[in-house]
Amino acid sequence: PAMDYAGLAEAAAQKLGLYRRDPGGWRGCRHTREVSVSWRPSAEFAGNVYRGEGIVPASPQDVWECIKPVAGGLRTRWDQNVKDFEVVEAVSDTVSVCRTTTPSAFMRIISPREFVDVVLIKQYEDGTMLSAATNVEHPLCLPQPDFVRGFNYPCGCFCIPLPGEPDRTQLLSFFQTDLGGYLPQTVVDSFFPTSIAGFYSNLTKAVKTLKA
């Protein structure tokens, strides 16, 4: 049977809404000027869900321009964890199946990965933009020999306008990834907080370049 991509994407967005509203159980693990990172055990798989929260010094439109999951978007230029991003199938105006590849990371301990996700883009009445994703299978995306297939569980970013502060945006992001392969848990546990801090730091630099 064909996968219900739209349904899976909507379910992922609802999960993220629940994470956003549920402050309980998060434990702080990394704090930088740009972001506070916390985690708690995932209910989806045998790993953790990570939460990043920070204020980006740019308008929600500019921040969204940098992070939105579209073919030919800016993300591959500034996000060191995204090597390539392609839309495999546009399911609707707001839902697409995408393949992301990542370069080797963490002093090459983590080899290149590929992820196949259904991605939903959603705008809320208060102007908040959400991109939500979760892993799926797709006939056009069979595993590639040079990559380890990883799996994203409901993950994504909320771009939240701050009332009265048009040039600042609250960015709330959730990362929940099974990297696949045979990585020691200690590597995984130290990779994500570092990687999320890098994501916020590189994004902050990227929006400045955009505005320049």
TrEMBL record:
Annotated keywords: Lipid transport, Lipid-binding, Transport
**Which Pfam families has this protein been placed in?**
START (PF01852)
Protein origin, superkingdom? Eukaryota
The record ties this protein, via InterPro entries, to: StARD5/6, START-like_dom_sf, START_lipid-bd_dom
Q: What residues does the START domain cover?
A: 1-212
Recorded GO molecular functions are: cholesterol binding; cholesterol transfer activity
Q: Tell me, which GO biological process terms does this entry list?
A: cholesterol import
Answer whether the UniProt record assigns the keyword Transport to this protein: yes
Function field: May be involved in the intracellular transport of sterols or other lipids. May bind cholesterol or other sterols.
Q: What PANTHER family does its record include? A: PROTEIN CBG07384, STAR-RELATED LIPID TRANSFER PROTEIN 5
Q: What is this protein called?
A: STAR5 protein
Q: Which organism is it from?
A: Ardeotis kori
